[in-house]
């Protein structure tokens, strides 16, 4: 069976400070192109979660997305992402914008309904919940599934169990294909017969999201996949403010140099990284700073590893 997988959409009604275009207009251009791809290929769309940027967005955004999705020849399936849920809690789903869409739009379905529609079971993991075992060798997860190349054991991210799960985890051994999201970093890798795909973000909100948006067409029988670049997506430099790019690069260089100095001091670096990890896990930082600091810490630790 063929399925069109899409990464984090983060549908929203406001333009992020780093964007130079009209975010709302751009997002619906991309969504409509994805729908056209799905219709041309006659395949369902499956989202890795974070369909919306917040648990509750404006009715205009919900209605516009709903109207777009009604053009689909097949259906739109999803797992719950952290941004889709109030307080990141699954029990709040009925009160959310995605919950409203699910209850009122016949095209929108949770991934749990996929087997009923296509006779094809898919295991899934909604945000902050255990894996739902449907006796499948395919897993759809909002949480990032990674390997040691992406997040090494000595990385500040390694101990963050809410952010990611290592592919060598015993609970993942039975799968031949895993599709995930959450981390706005597109990647593809194989591990002991498991193919892992993170399609990457559809909407780029910050200077961290430096990639051209794609969707991924996957043959679930063979796990072969085709990356499809969105034609309407503009180069990163054309939609992200140069002021923010320059500022982010300057901050990253300063932070990177600082962390390198600390990493050279064995006794202090470990303590410092532990402090930074606690801060990253505290949810007290702004999202853009959190993501930037995660990347900087990870890079610094990888550099230390190579020395």
Structure report:
The chain is α/β, with parallel strands linked by helices and 307 residues long. The protein has 2 domains: 2-236, Purple Acid Phosphatase, chain A, domain 2 (4-Layer Sandwich), CATH 3.60.21; 241-306. Helices cover 34% and strands 17% of the residues. Strands 4-3-2-1-12-13 form a 6-stranded mixed sheet. A 5-stranded mixed sheet has the order 5-6-9-11-10, with no helix packed on it. Helix 1 packs parallel to helix 2 (59-69) and helix 2 runs parallel beside helix 3. The protein is globular and about 50 Å long. It starts with a strand and ends with a helix. The model is unreliable at 265-270 and 302-307 (pLDDT under 50).
- Our count of helices gives 8
Which spans have pLDDT < 50 for at least 5 consecutive residues?
265-270, 302-307
Category by helix and strand content: alpha/beta
Q: What is the CATH topology classification name of the largest domain?
A: Purple Acid Phosphatase, chain A, domain 2
Helix content: 25-40%
- The CATH architecture of the largest domain would be 4-Layer Sandwich
Oligomer: single chain
CATH class value of the largest domain? Alpha Beta
- Terminal CA distance: 46 Å
Q: Main sheet?
A: 6 strands, mixed
Strand fraction equals 15-25%
CATH homolog superfamily of the largest domain: Metallo-dependent phosphatases
Count the strands?
Answer: 13
């Amino acid at each position: 069976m063929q399925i069109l997988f899409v990464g984090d959409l983060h549908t929203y009604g406001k333009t992020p400070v780093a964007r130079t275009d009209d975010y709302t207009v751009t997002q619906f251009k991309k969504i409509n192109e994805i729908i056209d791809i799905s219709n041309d290929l006659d395949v369902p769309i499956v989202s890795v979660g974070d369909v919306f940027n917040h648990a509750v967005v404006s009715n205009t955004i919900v209605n516009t997305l709903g109207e777009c999705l009604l053009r689909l020849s097949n259906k739109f399936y999803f797992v719950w992402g952290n941004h889709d849920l109030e307080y990141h809690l699954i029990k709040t789903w009925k009160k959310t914008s995605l919950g409203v869409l699910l209850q009122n739009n016949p095209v929108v379905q949770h991934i749990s309904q996929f087997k009923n529609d296509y006779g094809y079971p898919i295991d899934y993991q909604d945000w902050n919940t255990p894996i739902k075992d449907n006796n499948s060798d395919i897993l759809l997860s909002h949480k990032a599934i990674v390997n040691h190349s992406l997040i090494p054991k000595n990385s500040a991210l390694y101990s963050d169990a809410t952010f990611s799960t290592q592919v060598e985890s015993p609970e993942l051994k039975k799968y031949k294909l895993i599709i995930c999201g959450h981390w706005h970093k597109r990647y593809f890798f194989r591990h002991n017969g498991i193919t892992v795909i993170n399609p990457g973000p559809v909407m780029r909100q910050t200077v961290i999201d430096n990639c051209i948006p794609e969707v991924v067409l996957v043959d679930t029988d063979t796990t072969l996949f085709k990356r499809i670049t969105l034609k309407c997506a503009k180069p990163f430099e054309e939609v992200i403010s140069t002021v923010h790019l320059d500022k982010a690069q300057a901050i990253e260089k300063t932070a990177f140099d600082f962390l390198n100095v600390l990493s050279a001091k064995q006794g202090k670096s470990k303590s410092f990284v532990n402090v930074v990890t606690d801060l990253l896990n505290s949810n007290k930082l702004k999202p853009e700073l959190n993501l930037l600091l995660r990347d900087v810490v990870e890079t610094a630790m990888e550099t230390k590893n190579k020395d």
